[in-house]
Specification:
4 copies of one chain form a homotetramer. Helices cover 27% and strands 21% of the residues of chain A. By secondary structure, the first copy, chain A, is an alpha/beta fold.
Chain lengths: 184, 184, 184, 184
């Protein structure tokens, strides 16, 4: 029997662009694009954050909720909530963004560890029932992301027998490269 | 009662990249991306033709058939079938392309007139039942095209009550611009 | 009589990517590309900072010195020297960068005020004699920048009768846009 | 003793965008950007032809003359003068373009053979005295092209002792690739 993968709820110390904290349960019935990023990760800044913002602006009314997760695992003194707030302002980011909860003495934040993210950017798609249906590290091109979102939007009920597509790209050894920034 | 829009079959004088002529009936059960272009239309060359080729290469196995329609309505002496063949070779285009049938004394070819195309590039999506579900003039971005394809791939049967999305962009008066080339 | 414009020396509170403080006098005999930026200015991050880095990497040996000036005039708590250091690391910036000196109670830093910069990005070219020969606000395309650098590299002596090209682009009212971030 | 490289005059069967035939002698005193292309060479269409057009539009008044050379060495039936004329019209090319003279029974045209061009795109820079100062096969980036042009614009007299920079990029075996189209 194939179990449908799910992810535990995110743990957020501070929210931006939303007046109330968001939960997975509150998203039920909608397709959720969850993207993990760092404000100083070049590939996030040039590709994944603006891509997520476009999905938010163009498909929120069609049933897609976009949530950013600021998963700082390096340069903590540089990527503070104050820094993030300025970043979101300057880049005109309007979709909700939560700061992943830190644990004292642990460089990788809580949600990032629970989700076993490889680094930033990471992109996850949850279906209307809250099941994890796509999980990618690195850049995802618009065409593939669009097809995946289009498919999920057509589902009225979760598809229990569909397997999770957990495609993780070839790793690189440097900290940040064209693909993104990896936890070492 | 809403009628579902259909389009008559294309009329082709010569095919490339296929050993047998293609018909709409032969596509039943598949999602069809039909794109009209001219080999000397800058926006087609830089955007719509390579986009169509990517859809062909990446989603043919998922049930999408991509067909190019060479709808020459200007510079006929420059955009001949011999020219088209060289173009397809040099640009590494592998999806089937048909030359829209000309009528003596009429600059706009037959299929282009029957489909009332505004110019090139034009993009049409047909669902698995052969109904016209999207019709756009000018550049369509990858994200929107992907979502539209993803939705259609999830349909087992045509949706008779769904309206055609016939979104035509704002017109320009010049012959060829950033958006494409228009019939004047 | 035309006077040749000069600029006073920069005032820097902290240097990165250089073991010794840099001065204009120390640059005599070389062409200097001086670019003012902020680490959260989108147009700087996507265009002017990587452009300056390319000039540094490809033309340092030909006689061009590239110096970045971190002129923070907004979001001071977000764009700290610690933040800048992480930014330079993640974006692989190897050319010298100085933090423009702040004055208590004044949001615009010292050098930025002395140079009467309109905002970020700003680009200045100094000739081998230290005269200001180009001063632009906003994006400068590679072709124009290259021609300007090529011309200055050919000068053995300053050209006293050549007028300063002080071309400032049309202003925008928003804080940060495609062009850059302006002091309001 | 270093001889300064020169090139013989181009041999043109038909000119576009000029009312009188152009000769090297007629260019004396100006910097000349000579670029060889084919209208169905993807790298020419996307990069080198629009780059040459920008140089023409932005630096003609500064003393740069841009000349295109249509050097068809393959698909001759597809890249006719009629085809070229439509191409120049659709792509809004306004700088002079000459069709390289063909010899019966020889696929590579006359000027292309005399200049020993490796393929398309090829870019040559002639100084004000008519000496060949740069010769590149494949894409040349704007920054390097700009610096080279800027340097030549500053020369009042040719520099007899300066060596020709004949940098030819690494070869590829396919006919047309990202870099350009090569004579096989």
């Amino acid at each position: 029997m194939n179990e449908i993968p799910t992810i535990p709820d995110w743990q957020i110390s501070q929210w931006f662009n939303t007046s109330t904290p968001l939960t997975q349960a509150g998203m039920r019935g909608r397709v959720v694009l969850l993207h993990a990023f760092q404000m100083l990760c070049p590939s996030c800044v040039s590709h994944s954050v603006p891509q997520a913002e476009r999905v938010h602006r163009e498909f929120a009314e069609s049933g897609v909720s976009v949530i950013g997760l600021h998963t700082v695992f390096e340069h903590h003194a540089a990527m503070t909530p104050v820094g993030l707030e300025a970043f979101l302002h300057e880049y005109h980011i309007t979709h909700p963004v939560g700061v992943d909860q830190m644990t004292p003495g642990e460089p990788v934040p809580v949600t990032m560890r629970k989700y076993k993210l490889r680094g930033t950017p990471s992109l996850m798609l949850l279906d209307r029932a809250g099941h994890l249906r796509m999980h990618e590290f690195g850049r995802v091109d618009d065409l593939h992301l669009g097809v995946a979102i289009g498919r999920l939007l057509m589902e009225e009920k979760p598809m229990p027998d569909e397997l999770q597509r957990q495609s993780v790209r070839d790793g690189r050894t440097t900290n940040c490269d064209e693909q993104g920034c990896e936890v070492s």
